[in-house]
Amino acid sequence: MLRTARFRLALAVAAATGVGLALPGAAWADTARNEPPAGATDDATYLVAALNGRNEVPGPAGSPAVGDRDGRAVEVVRIKGDQLSFAVRWSGIGAPTAGHIHLGAAGVNGPVEVPLFGAKLPDTLTAAVGTVTVADPSLLESLRTDPGRFYANLHDADFPGGAVRGQLHKVTHPVDLNAVLRGGPLAAILDGGQEVPTPGKRTGDPDGHAVAFVRAGDDDVRFAFSWSGIAPPTDGHLHQGGVGANGPVAVNLFAAPGGLPASLTGVAGVVEDVRRDLAKKIGKDPTGFYVNLHTAEFGGGAVRGQLFRSGAGAAAYQASTVVAPVLKGAQIYACTRQASGSYAYTQHNVRARLAGGITHSFVTDDAGPPRWVARDGSAVTGTVLSRTPNGAGNIPELDLAATRIGADSGLLAGVVEIERLNTVGGVAPTGACDPATRPTVAVPYEADYVFLA
């Protein structure tokens, strides 16, 4: 039954929209715009940034406020031809009002080079994907060859000068941009033909298609949509009602009266404070509910689809690209005899606790490799691909290839590459040491780890 449900969903998506699922990884991929088909050669360039408020740089006196200290985001960029596709997920900030790529090295403000979107997003959203066309080939070449000269940031109402920011870095593996639109146990295949006429309102866009995933918690509903062939959505709803009948809105998933930014092709989010009895009913009897998207042209509903069980399971909602800052961590160094006969501190291990319940250490003291373990049993080790200096007193930033060593599902199961970014501290003490009096030393450090699915 599980295989049948997954196959049904994958076939329906491929046939209806050209959007394919990466099962069992629980993320879909837009093969036409954001991702290559499975097995295809991908000659695109992929970039990633870990955004936080600390990275924002204040402007001159009187400039708009910058730097939300609670804010975090991860952004993945794909460049192919003149198309720049992006995926961004955020937390700890207000609803983004704009997303940009700027020219500027770390610690320096610079001009906007690529506007990704420029309108306030609905409060319930936590992620978005989209594509913009960049007409300047020299700009795209600079992004491909020297991404560290550019940074991504998000603005919100409280921090109009920039809430979170992060320098761009090139990654080695192709990355599923739509992994930020995480899957879930409930899914729907939407099109205009499933809409039921509403008196006085236009319904059913004949060119429209979409895919949706839903997860009903105890008192919240998580959702994601990816669409094509429709104008920018103005509303996303979860209705109670069977096939062929209109029903009342059970959960208002998002509202964008002026339409979402035209560059977006998908969004994800969460609605909190849902009645517990309603959330339970959605999870228990999903076929009694449907989701739809409205547009300005089709106010009665542009596309609609009935919910069904996708077979992916609730745990699949966790399989995604994530950024996890170090909550408490230290680089561990041991006083080691050198070839010259003297003693100096060398890397011994690392001990860190990351957001999301991830722990970080070496598999074996001194020899490694580095290992990350999630609470759900998924785990990976890393092999260093490159090191990038990050200023005096800070350990270098790292790009690592990931190898799965834990469970085949869960938070880290689909990770192919790891970036250690925004490093602060952690450098080994210099000079000679005495193994008898101080055999090891723990040096505190900060960093953002990006786990790329």
Mean pLDDT over the full residue set: 89
Structural class category: mainly beta
Tell me the major beta sheet: 10 strands, antiparallel
Shape: globular
Helical stretch count? 3
| Proportion of beta-strand residues | 35-45%
How many E-type strands?
Answer: 28
Q: How far apart, in Å, are the first and last alpha carbons? A: 26 Å
Rg on CA atoms, Å:
23 Å
The parts where pLDDT drops under 50 for at least 5 residues are 1-41
Strand order of the largest sheet: 11-3-4-5-8-17-14-13-12-20
Helix content: under 10%
Key structural traits:
globular; mainly beta; eight-stranded antiparallel β-barrel; 3 helices; 453 residues; disordered N terminus; ten-stranded antiparallel sheet
